Amino acid sequence: MDMKQFKTSLKDKIVLVDFGATWCGPCKAMEPVIKDMRQKYEGKASILEINIDDQRTLATDYMVQSIPTLIIFDNAREIKRLVGLQSASTIEQSLDEALENH
């Protein structure tokens, strides 16, 4: 995915982008939470998973310095960043706030 494709996927909606890697323990621990979020917010928000090893340019452009990093976008504008292992309730609260303000 290049930058143009990535930005297109962020347009006109709320998107949670999960920057992680296959070798990252906390990223693996969050996989079930992200999967649940994808189902819970289907039709309301999109969830993208970005492997920083495959998408180094995106990780650099968005200044991802630690993983997992979750970034919530509203119409391609970053509105919230969560770094490190996050609870389901923290992610839900952040997504709900983003949807309320969208």
Q: Strand sequence of the main sheet, in spatial order?
A: 2-1-3-4
Low-confidence stretches: none
The CATH topology assignment is Glutaredoxin
What is the subunit organization of this protein? single chain
What percent of residues adopt helix (DSSP H or I)?
A: 40-55%
If helices are DSSP runs of H or I spanning 4 or more residues, what is the number of helices? 4
SS-derived structural category: alpha+beta
Description:
The longest helix has 16 residues, at 25-40. Helices cover 43% and strands 25% of the residues. It has four helices and four strands. It has helices at residues 3-10, 25-40, 56-61, 88-101; strands spanning 14-20, 46-51, 69-74, 77-83. The chain has a single domain, classed as Glutaredoxin, CATH 3.40.30.10. With 102 residues, it is α+β, with helices and mostly antiparallel strands. A hairpin with a 2-residue loop joins strand 3 (69-74) and strand 4 (77-83). Strands 2-1-3-4 form a four-stranded mixed sheet.
